[in-house]
Specification:
Elements lengths: L1 H4 L29 H20 L5 H14 L4 E6 L2 E3 L2 E3 L4 E6 L3 E6 L6 H14 L3 E6 L9 E5 L3
Helix pairs in contact: 2-3
Length: 158
């Protein structure tokens, strides 16, 4: 009888939350996910797969190579070490800046293998987002025992 009383309620895990799939009783699942969020979920899954196999302690370049291999194997379009010119007073200058990984020209990945993420790492990602006019970035530190503690999602508010 108690179960019948609450049969019309939607479980908390299915309550409408912005950016996530939502469901109401008897309705089909509706996707409310923008492209950057779709890619970020898949990239985080790929990064976790890489971390599961390699663990912490390697150089950033090793994680970058393996992550890009994992992304390509999953059919996720990405570009490594993309040049980032600086526009100064209307002139584009190549100052040697490189974006670690750009996914589908919409998501920036800044990879690290450091003991602790510092505010300067966050500032670097935000600056790269602003200069590249990208909206969403992930700062991923592979040098942690549990990868989810090494991921920061940052948004460029233009």
């Amino acid at each position: 009888m108690l179960n019948e009383q609450f049969a019309c309620l939607t479980p908390f895990s299915q309550i409408d939350r912005p950016g996530l799939a939502w469901r109401t009783k008897g309705a089909k699942v509706k996707e409310n996910i923008n492209p950057e969020d779709k890619w970020s979920r898949q990239v985080i899954g790929a990064a976790m797969e890489v971390h599961k196999h390699l663990g912490p302690g390697l150089l950033e370049s090793a994680y970058e190579e393996c992550l890009c291999h994992e992304l390509a194997a999953s059919g996720i379009p990405c570009e490594r070490q993309k040049a980032l010119p600086i526009v100064y007073k209307g002139i584009s200058l190549d100052c040697g800046y490189r974006l670690d990984v750009v996914v589908d020209d919409s998501l920036l990945l800044e990879l690290k293998s450091v003991e602790t993420l510092l505010p300067i790492h966050e500032a670097q990602l935000l600056t790269y987002l602003r200069l590249s006019s990208l909206k969403l970035g992930l700062l991923i530190n592979f040098n942690v025992p549990l990868l989810k503690t090494g991921i920061k999602r940052m948004v460029n508010h233009f």
